[in-house]
Amino acid sequence: MTVSEKIVADFVANDVEFITTVPCKQLAGVIDAVEANSDIYHIPSNKEDEGMGLCAGAYMGGKRPAIIMQNTAIGVTVNTLVTLTQYYRMPLPMLISYRGELREPVACQAEMAVHTKALLNQLNIPTYHFHKEDDVEEFDAILKYTYMCNKPVAILTDASFWGGYGE
Amino acid sequence: MIRSDILRDIAPILSNQLVVCNIGLPSQELHLIDDQPSNFYMLGTMGLSSSIGLGVALAQDKTVISIDGDGSVLTNFGTLPTIANNVADNYILLIIDNGSYGSTGDQPTYAGLKTSLTNVAKACGCENVIECSAADTGKTLQSAIDSKKMTIIVAKCESGNIKVPVITKDPVVIRDRFMKAVQA
Q1: Is B45–A65 a contact, with Cβ atoms under 8 angstroms apart?
Q2: CATH no., domain A3-157
């Protein structure tokens, strides 16, 4: 089972049926696996705050949602996380590609990487960092934790976790 | 007619329907005119009424009406292609288009100038897009509900606001009673 297959299997095992995605090269495999899974309604969104709106609606409609996005999205979604997801106390697992870490080839990505954990910390968002492939073993517990506490929860996944950036 | 006149007109049609209402004055006016547990009021996050409503519609079978404004749709323009490509026949987007940012002092929007949201929605691939006058909003909304086809309504009205109190209900209470209405 690949890492992407394991992540999608954990989503399904935790009754996550509604996933929105904004693509990142590092996330291409897991997005393909989400799209291929018939137990999940995959709805690509055009911007991450739009995606969080879709997830808020799906949650209130009775389905467990999740969002898959890049860490640059934290810069886009601060207001939505605070005044929608947190203010109304809704659960939202955020599977995030942590661009700008070790093995990153694009210098600009490091600029947002240095702010990513600080922003998540400022927002009081529980944050987990997957650096080695085995770290994926915690994903199931993180999903359970998210739906237990009704909070947005960040899972940062860096290039080392994904086996490099295609170098 | 201004937005609050439309909301008064359509309140009987909205009765017992799942309604997701735009931030600011639209939610405050709806709350004043006809508060009900199946209304979800947005207290923050401008622009996401259409996205939240679509999410609710895709997750269950009851009809969902998102009440949005022209300024809010412009803020979240990416929503229209997402709606067009994820058809939920229990979903109605009612855009009350008064050509202005009403909650912030009636500054003009581009929808009140050269940009037609009706044409934009059609260009994005939305299939049932109806532009109507303020006075025809009620019958247009009712026929959209009866059609059981996903519909985008652009109701054109004049700019203007009434004095309304802010909503002081706790957000978790608003969310909880809305979810109970979904499950009822």
Answers
A1: no
A2: 3.40.50.970
Of B70, B30, B61, B66, the C-alpha closest to B51 is B66
Q: Which of B43, B78, B179 minimises the CB distance to A60? A: B179
Q: How many separate domains does chain B show?
A: 1
Hey, where are the domains in chain A? 3-157
**Which residues from B are below 8 Å from A92, CB to CB?**
none
At residue B125, φ and ψ (nearest 5 deg) are 105, 5
Enclosing domain of residue B42: 3-183
Identify the CATH number of the domain in which residue B105 sits.
3.40.50.970
Contact call for residues B18 and B64 (beta carbons, < 8 A): yes
pTM score, whole prediction: 0.98
A166 falls in which pLDDT band (50, 70, 90)? low
| CA B20 – CA B38 distance, rounded (Å) | 8
Within a 10 A sphere around the Cβ of B180, how many other Cβ atoms? 11
Give pLDDT < 70 ranges for chain B.
Answer: none
Instruction: Return the biggest CA–CA distance within chain A.
Output: 43
Element housing B177 (H / E) = helix B171-183
